[in-house]
Specification:
Layout: H1 4-12, H2 24-33, H3 35-50, H4 68-75, H5 81-88, H6 98-116
Helix pairs in contact: 1-6, 3-6, 4-6
């Protein structure tokens, strides 16, 4: 398994994934809520929208905007089970383990933290 930094570099080489960035309002939201609250939101979104084995609206469950974590999910190819399989070979139709969820949250938060410095 590659490191978070290696994964972010690989994602940045994708024309589609690299087009996602936090807007000024996204950054203001992160600052206002604090990074710990954003991490909790992130963990909740991953647990509820990505971790189940079967997701009725898979491929459409993650909006393109509305929360900084949603942009991070698209930028990191953690937006649906199809992208998780394509980019990370996570088997479809199986629930994500707590360790897998933690790794996804760590990747998403690393992307958000990097975006906050730009």
């Amino acid at each position: 398994m590659s490191s978070v930094n290696e994964t972010l570099k690989r994602l940045n080489r994708s024309a589609f994934r690299s087009r996602f960035h936090l807007s000024d309002s996204d950054k203001a939201y992160v600052k206002a809520k604090g990074i710990d609250v954003i991490r909790r939101h992130c963990a909740d979104f991953v647990r509820d929208r990505l971790a189940p084995a079967y997701i009725p609206n898979d491929g459409k469950q993650t909006p393109m905007k509305g929360h900084p974590v949603f942009k991070a999910q698209h930028a990191c190819a953690c937006c649906c089970r199809g992208c998780l399989f394509k980019w990370y070979k996570v088997k479809p139709a199986t629930p994500l383990s707590s360790l897998q969820q933690e790794k996804i949250v760590n990747l998403l938060m690393a992307w958000i933290e990097k975006e906050m410095t730009l």
